[in-house]
Amino acid sequence: MIAKTYTYAIQGIDAVLVEVEVDIATGLPAYATVGLPDSAVRESRDRIKAALQNSGYAFPMDRITVNLAPASIKKEGSGFDLPIAIGILTAIGMVPQDQAATHVLAGELALDGRIYER
Question: N or C: which end of the chain has fewer CB within 10 A?
Fold first, then answer.
């Protein structure tokens, strides 16, 4: 199933809307983030996995692909944790798609599932 959430990327002084697509498919467990992510965004996998598990959710042991569109804009920082985590929860049926796609989300997740306030 493909789930969609929204966030933003900073480009100069502008916030550019970013569509976060999460696809969970059967197969060997794997996790890939595409769409020009920096190292903090690529590292989000470990924060998201710990945050979901420590919040009582099972992290899918399938092939997870996260697409951050548009791919032409560099995605930087840990603020992509929350929209990706909500995308994963939506893809596994824990969050309704119509609710996930109506908000613009941003936030860094703590390993215990809290959203850091900064």
Answer: C
